[in-house]
Design brief:
9 strands; globular; Pyridox_Oxase; Pyridoxine/pyridoxamine 5'-phosphate oxidase; 213 residues; alpha+beta
Length: 213
């Protein structure tokens, strides 16, 4: 057994206090996201973990990329037939998690999920590099495949097929929007007395509370 008891870090880069935060959590998210996106030590500020509930009752977490956010919610794209997509269709709730170690910050977002309108999925799909478009067509995401060559051979076939034509967006690929009802902002502080500010949606208004670390 490797003993990690003495592996510790002092958190002292910033603070999160009520007099300085935004009253709307999306605006607070925007401020923190801009800080993360401009930080040279963070390569993908929009990388986020998303947890969904599986049929066996156990949550499953994986990393995806945030592609847009608005006052309505947070948008990402995926294969609707993947394990993630199937879990979302059965239980329209998920938890998002952003962690930016360089800033000693994390954000936890609980929300309800909906598919975005098809024209938005079309627009994003065709804005992607052609290789990424082909990858979405090639991969039967989350299904068992015989080997790596299965994907590579299929990719070569499609590269020839769509060499001089537009690649249609697969019907089973598109975007979801996570409409939040709870957003927690965590800022590391000394002596493990971290700042935790939570926004909870109450009808159309956001209630702001402080949680003990």
């Amino acid at each position: 057994m490797e003993n990690l008891h003495d592996k510790r870090k002092v958190y002292d880069k910033s603070q999160l206090i009520e007099s300085e935060i935004k009253q709307n959590p999306i605006e607070q998210f925007r401020d923190w996201f801009l800080d993360a996106n401009e930080n040279p030590g963070i390569s993908e500020a929009n990388a986020m973990a998303i947890s969904t509930l599986e049929d066996d009752g156990c949550p499953r977490t994986r990393m995806v990329l945030l592609k847009a956010y608005t006052y309505e919610g947070f948008i990402f794209y995926t294969n609707y037939n993947s394990r993630k997509g199937k879990a979302i269709e059965k239980n329209h709730k998920a938890c998002l998690h952003f962690f930016w170690p360089n800033l000693e910050r994390q954000i936890i977002i609980k929300g309800n999920l909906e598919r975005i309108v098809e024209n938005l999925s079309d627009g994003y799909f065709h804005s992607r590099p052609k290789g990424s478009q082909l990858g979405a067509v090639v991969s039967p995401q989350s299904q068992v495949i015989p080997n790596r060559e299965f994907l590579e051979d299929k990719l070569k076939e499609l590269e020839k097929e769509y060499e001089n034509s537009e690649i249609p967006r697969p019907e089973n690929w598109g975007g979801y929007i996570v409409k939040p009802y709870e957003i927690e902002f965590w800022q590391g502080r000394p002596n493990r007395l971290h700042d935790r500010i939570i926004y909870t949606l109450d009808d159309l208004d956001w209630k702001i509370s402080r949680l003990a670390p």
